[in-house]
Each structure stands twice: as C-alpha cells, then as structure tokens.
C-alpha cells in the first residue's frame, strides 16, 4: 500500500511539474555517470507539485585532453536544451566547455580539483579550494612536528596540488625536497624509492592517484621504507577507501585526511542505495567505498535542483523559455543563467561532503576535513580541520605494542620443506653435513630470521615428493602432501612456495604472505625476424614513399610545362646561323624526368636549365633532394642493422588465440595451485584454458623444472607463479615472462588450525618486510646465489656489427632486376625498330633483322649504315663482285706495285678535297689508302 501511494505521488509530481534537462559530460569512469543518474532519480522521487522534474542528458564518451570534440559534445547538449553542464574531468576539456558555458551563461558544475578556478564566470566548483587545502596540509604537518620532509608526487597535476604547501614550508624554514615517483609512468617506483632511502629522509608527503596508492605503499614496504622510523602524510581525500590491511602491522606512522565521514547516517543510507546493485558490496562497509568525486556529484545535483526550485517559487517570470535550447553558432544565451550561478554561490547545503558553502568569490573555502591515522586496529580518527578553527587534535598517537598470547621463546618446531629452488636446497659441499646444516635457501633463511626475532628453535625435515598438498575428493577427504603432514602432527610449520588458497585455508592456517605474487606465463624470448627483402626502404614509411613518387612526377611535369612556356629555353640548334629556321627545347618530357632522376640520385645530367624560372624549380628540387637524401642516409644504417623480434603472443588472451596457429602448447604444474586456479574458473578466458588443461592432461608437468626444460626446447608456455618465473629468467637467458599477473595471491607459512603462534609469526614477517630484510633475502637468492644475475645487466658490444647479405640483398636484387628489365626493354625496342626499317626500306622483316644482327655482331666498329632497298641491293652486288674477284685473284698474279702506287698517289692528291664514295648512303668514306684497301 505504501509503495502504491509513493508511486502515485511521483506520477502526480511528474504530471504537474516541468521537465528540465541536466547535462553530464563523463569519460569511461562508470561510477561518475552512475552517481549522476542516481542523484537525478533521487531528486525526482521527492518532487512536489509545481517543482521541476530533472531529465539526465549524458555523453559518456569524452576522451582525455581532447578539447575540440568535447566542446562539440557540449554544443550538442546545449542544442537539446539544458540548464547546466556537469563535467568533464580533464583540465583541457574543462576549459573548452567553460568557454561555451560562459558564452551561453549556462552554469558549469565541476566536482574535481582544479588549480586555476575562474572568478566571474559560470563555473561552480564543489571541490575544496586549492589554497585552503594547502593551508590544511601545512597545519597538519606543523602539528606533526615535522621540520623537514620529502614531497613525492606522481604527475604534473600532483606537483601543482602541492605547490602552495612547498612555498609555505620554505617560507617557514622547512627543508623540502621534491621528487617525482615515476617519471615514465611505468608503474615501477622502486628505483626512486631506493634513492630516497639512501638520502636518509624519514618524513614524506605522498600525492598520487587513488588507483595507484596501494601499489605505491607496497613498493615502499618492499624497499624497506615501512617501519616505525618512517612517517607519511597522504594528501588524497580517498585514502580511506583503499584496503590498507597489508600495512596495519608495519608500525609506520601513516596519516591521511578525508572530507566524507563514513559513519554519517546520510552517507551510509545513500551509499547503500547507490551500490545496491553491486553483488560484491558489503552493506556494513559500503560507505567506506564512496569516493569524494562521486559524493560531490550527488551533492551538486541536489543543491542545484533545490536552488532551481526556489527560484521558480519566488519569481513569477518563467525561468526556462523555448525549452532553453541554445545554439553555439549564434549569440543567444540563458537570461537566468547568472542568477542561478549567483544563488548557488550564496546558498548553503548539507550533503555527503558536509556543509557546502561558497565564499564571496564563488570558491568552496568553508569545509571540514577529518584527520586519521592507520593503526593496528584499522583507521582511527585523531582530529578535524576546518577554516574557522583550524586543526583540532582529539586523539594523540600512541604506541600499541603487539600482544599475541604466549611467547615463542625456547619453543621447538618441526619445520617441513621441499627441495624447491630457491626456497629450500641442499648445500653444495664436499663435507658430510647433518641436521639443519644440510639446507640453504630463501625459506631456510626466513625461518632463521624469525627464530632470531622470536627466540624459538627449529628442526627441518624434507617432503621428498615435493607435494604441497591436495584434498582427496573421495571420503574421508584426506589431505596429502605437507598439509597432510601438518594435520597428522608430523610437522608444526611448513614453508616453501606454498600458495595461500581458500581450499587450503579451510584445512590449515597461514601467516600473512611473506611474498606477494601472481600467475604469469613463461615462454621463450621472441626470436629475431630475418630482414625483409625491402629492408632498404624501411627508413621511410609507405606514405612518404608515395608522396616522394608524387612529388617526383609533379616536378618533372612542372619542368616540362615551364620549359615550354619560357622563351629562354627555346635555343638555336645552329649557333653559327643568326636566323635559324627553327628553335629547339631541351625540356621534353623524357628529358625532364631524366633531369629530376639524376638530381634525386645525386648524379646530375647533361641537361642544365637556362631560364630563371626553370632554375628556381631546379633549385627547389635540389634542396628537397638534399634533405630527403640526408634523412634517408641517417636512418638507413640504423634500419639495416636493426633486427625486429617476432612475438608469437603478448598475453594470456593472445596465447589462447594464437596457440593453434603456431602450434603452441601450454600447461601448469599438475595438481598445483596454478592448475586449480584455471580448473575452478567459471567463465572467460581462464575457463577456456582450464578446459584445455582438462582435455590435454599430457601437457601438465610434474615439476616446474620439467616445464622450464620444455619451454626452452619446444613451443611450450608454462603457467607459473611470477616469483618462480623471475627466478628462472635470472638463470635461463632465453626465457622471459609474458603479460601481467593473472591473479593476486601470496606465499605463507602454514600451520595447524587455531595455532597460538600464528599472529606472532605474522607480526614478525611484517616487521621483516618493513625493515627490508625479506627484500634483501630475495635479492640474495634470486640475483646473487646459484647462478643468479647472469641474465641481467647485459650490455651490447661497443663494436659495430657488420651487416650480412640478408640485410642488403634487396639492394642487389633491385640492381639485377633493373638490368634484366633494361634488356627486356631493349629487345622489344629493337624488334619494333627493325619492323619500322623493314617497312620504310620495303624489304622483308627477316632481311632487315639479319642485316641489323650482322652489324650488331661487328664489335670492332661503332658505325653502321642506314638500311634501304638500294643499299641492300648494292651491298648484295658488291658481295657478289667481291666473291668473283677473289676467285679471279686466286687464278691471276697479284697487281703490280706500280698500279698500287698510282692509286695511293691519286688518293693522296685528293686528300684536301671531297672524296665521293660509291658505297651506299650512311657509310663512312675512308680517310686513308690503307683503310680503302681494307674496304676493298
């Protein structure tokens, strides 16, 4: 009955209310759009007669730092009629939308940190003002009695957030160091943190995105910067929303702030409604997951709708005309826009983020922050800060010693382990060793460190089959392996690469993880692809080669056209004749192409431009060729010497897709936690891999060492824990890890259920992590001992590697193919020429080809006659005369010397004149008697 009345009241409100559009510009962050729609729905649920009904218009495809498309999206929303625009998030996009809103007098609602807030504009930022936040930071650091600190920021925006704090601290005499956590955005902060550790600094201000905060703190812990000596102040207002359980026992002094109070009834009520459709949300703690920006969106919608309804009730004039449709390409604007903006800036509202109130300049400078510390009991509030009273500390920091029942001093434990590198190994020695002295490794050293801290004794025993433990599916469901040994009291502790899983935790207890890891893929390194046939073309991309070809023909055509238009290019073929009958032009189309080709090849040609215009074209082309050839030459050596690796896959998805294509097999350790991870997967790619493992049990390996050998010799991908992969790749240089971690888990020390010393050991492990001892042990056994480090730190040879034939074979083949193509062209050209000659001379094609071929075979002469019908007849008659004369000569005596002498004198006497030849046209007249004799 109550639901029906509520529904009727909502319907009545809709009927008698006016609809107004609220616009939102959001990116791929679904939580912001979800909060916006939820806020609109919650306002509509409570509408009364005569009030506005809100309609959300959402664009959820805004790209980061793409101002022009974002501005177009804003214009599109304005054309549909809106009274406000919420978002976007990125600074460049905000400025683009703000310019549109200012022109159209539309309120622009911002809910994120912005270093450059605007006065006298339609922007209303619900996020606390930057200068007031910096004042809060400084007050907190002063109260913590820091005199020096290091600022660790993630990106440029983080540095801007802390700029005012740095200035305040320096003005007060603080020693401040500023360091960027990850300049290259690789996700690896350890390099910087190791340098920070060497600096001796103990106090840190950390500013990073909330998505990266936990990883940053984990890497702080890994490098030994997380113990009682170190103090942290985290500026992110959403720090309390992260899972900080791994750092509860680190004994570091971690301080944070928040603007949302999760214990507030309104926050809890709205959080439960907002996350009602989230199956993984826990109702009791869901309020701790509410992010600041999400809460600000809800507060902004509620406050804006309240102001809009108040204006409507107090004014008889219509607030919205023509559905408030505005176009970006005209001068129209919303007359009531600045009225709404000014009312928002002068109003107050109690929301999820506390009291929302703006100062006279329109900035939210009146707000309250909660100050908290991370202690063993969890997040503990220790004070508040507001603009009126400043910082007020309500609880002092206290040292809380760990108390966990009975002490471990003088107790003796049986510790079971396996011979699994590098966790447990037999010492390499010629001496006979007994007892604990037989073993060494990471797990052995870890137990030794724990015993030194807690004062217990231990004795190692071996599990020969290296089985961690599996549950028998048949009743009575006994456990095998080391878990069975624990349950049957053959051992008290178990340490090796022991993965903590839910099944195992039902049977035994684990300490906190002494090592965090995940499943990844071990496979051989990418092999080097052979150089391509056209490797010499690699210095330029395809579009550059296409453009170069286009410019080549364009310049050739331009020279041809300009050469014909330019009078200076028409020259006299006979310089000795003043008035020639005709002029010639050297820039035919073929000559133009040849000139451009010679210039591009840096060879030149016999053609030289004469006119100013053609020389300008030639000069521009030469300049272009200079730059192109220089660029090509600069890149050619690098590209010819570069060998591109061929990756068969990159991650788990591409492995599953490409495995059939490349005949890649994959598997995991049989009956191990990795295999069970895939076997128990319910959907997605992991389920498909698990099904493959069930269908191909022969691909599963008994030990990881067997999988490593297969990965080296075959196309075999081994799913293995990332720590084991890291150990393997330090010793097998032809293997590497592919893709990221497929899950997140850890190795722990196992013991029986309800063990009284579990918490003691867990606390000791956390202390070893915080002090960097575990990281040192890992470095020792992974990178220094037993062949570690041989695959890292390799440097390339300083000597240049000579290029092989594979690198440059394309150049040779281009030359060979060009020569062969030239031969083909000359044969075709010669056959066509012979055809033309045979037609002109009116002789058969065979006769013309025979004569041409005869002249071709005469390699001692560079002269050949012009073929004609008469010349062919005379040549044949002369051949006949020569033959008959030779026969008669053989029968008669040789001519007398007097006749020969008279012939020579006759020729010599006419040497200054013209000697007429009776030979066919085209033959060269002999210049001497000796040559004449040869011809006769």
TrEMBL record:
Keywords: Cell membrane, Disulfide bond, Glycoprotein, Ion channel, Ion transport, Ligand-gated ion channel, Membrane, Postsynaptic cell membrane, Receptor, Signal, Synapse, Transmembrane, Transmembrane helix, Transport
Stored SUPFAM superfamilies: Periplasmic binding protein-like I, Periplasmic binding protein-like II
GO molecular function, one term: ligand-gated monoatomic ion channel activity
Stretches for region Disordered: 874-918
Protein topology in the membrane: Multi-pass membrane protein
Disulfide bonds: 75-328, 733-791
Residues given in the record as L-glutamate binding sites: 499, 504, 674, 721
Gene3D superfamilies, per the entry: 1.10.287.70, 3.40.50.2300, Periplasmic binding protein-like II
Keyword Glycoprotein: yes
Locations listed in the record: Cell membrane; Postsynaptic cell membrane
GO cellular component: postsynaptic membrane
SMART domains: Lig_chan-Glu_bd (SM00918), PBPe (SM00079)
Major location (coarse): membrane
Listed name of the protein: Ionotropic receptor
Source organism (scientific name): Anoplophora chinensis
